[in-house]
């Protein structure tokens, strides 16, 4: 129970990798604010956390909504009594080659992957600064954690994903800037870049009909089975990762053993990186 007494925010934690992150942090003792676009998956995650003997509350809504960041941070402070861990996980892909990519596609992806994390960190800044100064005056050194989520598309680029690659590269820049800005407040800011992880966004689909609904938009997802086999063959470990394995990489940056690690990016990709 290395995170006992900690309070964590995890965006996009009703499903997939975010759900596994929330479950992992809760299993180690953290109380979690669970977020999803929809109430049902968020409540399912909360029930799973409670079944583990943990504590969780919901904050439903899109991370890109006006005022969401303040509501999200406020939920942690007001309902769970503090804020120690922030995981900016929520996101999706909306792919196209650049000559066919609309402004709407560009801004939607940049908003969810860069602007929303920026706004959440900004909303948390007052609490973090005040608490850090109070703890310093008491002679205590208390570390808090931010883990931003990137991708190997952000570290090496990917054709057909100019928006996603740019957004995931930008979150690395934000990570490194905030590690320098918030070091004096004892906040470790790090980043995990995922490789090929099996989620509903990468599930093999032969007919290309798979789609998700994001705020009224139908977004095609999934990967052709033959392409998936080829991608997995390029992974040194021989397969795609699981959401639980992806969550494990995030957990590493939340541990007290990582208190002197900040401004870093690790690739969780089974040995593959672009």
3D architecture notes:
The protein has one domain: Rossmann fold. 43% of the residues lie in helices and 17% in strands. The strands form two sheets. It has a seven-stranded parallel β-sheet, sandwiched between helices. Strands 7-8 form a two-stranded antiparallel sheet. Strand 7 and strand 8 form a beta hairpin. Helix 1 packs across helix 8. It is globular.
Helix content: 40-55%
- What is the end-to-end distance? 35 Å
What fraction of the residues are assigned to beta strands by DSSP? Answer: 15-25%
Instruction: Provide the CATH topology.
Output: Rossmann fold
Number of strands: 9
Give the CATH architecture: 3-Layer(aba) Sandwich
Number of helices: 8
Q: Strand order within the widest sheet?
A: 3-2-1-4-5-6-9
Level-1 CATH class name: Alpha Beta
**Average pLDDT:** 95
Cα shape: globular
- The structural class is alpha/beta
The CATH superfamily bears the name NAD(P)-binding Rossmann-like Domain
Number of domains: 1
User: Helix and strand string, N-terminal first?
Assistant: EHEHEHEHEHHEEEHHE
Radius of gyration: 18 Å
Low-confidence stretches: none
Keywords summarizing the entry:
Rossmann fold; 274 residues
Q: Strands, helices and their partners?
A:
Blueprint: E1 7-10, H1 16-27, E2 31-36, H2 39-51, E3 56-60, H3 68-80, E4 85-88, H4 103-137, E5 144-151, H5 152-156, H6 162-181, E6 187-194, E7 211-214, E8 217-220, H7 225-233, H8 243-252, E9 265-268
Parallel strand pairs: 1-2, 1-4, 2-3, 4-5, 5-6, 6-9
Antiparallel strand pairs: 7-8
Helix pairs in contact: 1-2, 1-8, 3-4, 4-6
């Amino acid at each position: 129970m290395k995170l006992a007494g900690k309070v964590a925010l995890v965006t996009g934690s009703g499903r997939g990798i975010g759900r596994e992150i929330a479950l992992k942090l809760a299993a180690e003792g953290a109380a979690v604010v669970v977020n999803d676009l929809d109430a049902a998956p968020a409540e399912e995650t909360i029930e799973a956390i409670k079944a583990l003997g943990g504590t969780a509350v919901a904050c439903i809504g899109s991370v890109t909504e006006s005022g969401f960041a303040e509501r999200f941070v406020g939920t942690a402070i007001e309902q769970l009594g503090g804020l120690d861990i922030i995981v900016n996980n929520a996101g999706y892909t909306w792919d196209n080659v650049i000559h066919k990519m609309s402004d709407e596609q560009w801004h939607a992806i940049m908003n969810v992957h860069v602007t929303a994390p920026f706004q959440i960190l900004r909303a948390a800044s007052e609490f973090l600064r005040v608490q850090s100064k109070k703890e310093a005056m008491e002679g205590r050194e208390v570390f808090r954690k931010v883990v931003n989520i990137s991708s190997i598309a952000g570290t090496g680029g990917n054709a057909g994903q100019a928006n996603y690659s740019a957004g995931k590269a930008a979150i690395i820049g934000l990570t490194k800037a905030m590690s320098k800005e918030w070091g004096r407040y004892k906040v470790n800011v790090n980043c995990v870049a995922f490789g090929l992880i099996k989620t509903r966004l990468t599930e093999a689909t032969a007919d290309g009909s798979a789609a998700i609904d994001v705020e009224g938009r139908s977004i095609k997802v999934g990967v052709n089975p033959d392409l998936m086999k080829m991608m997995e063959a390029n992974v040194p470990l021989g397969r795609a990762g699981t959401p639980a394995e992806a969550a494990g990489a995030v957990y590493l940056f939340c541990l007290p053993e990582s208190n002197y690690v900040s401004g870093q990016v690790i690739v969780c990709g089974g040995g593959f990186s672009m």
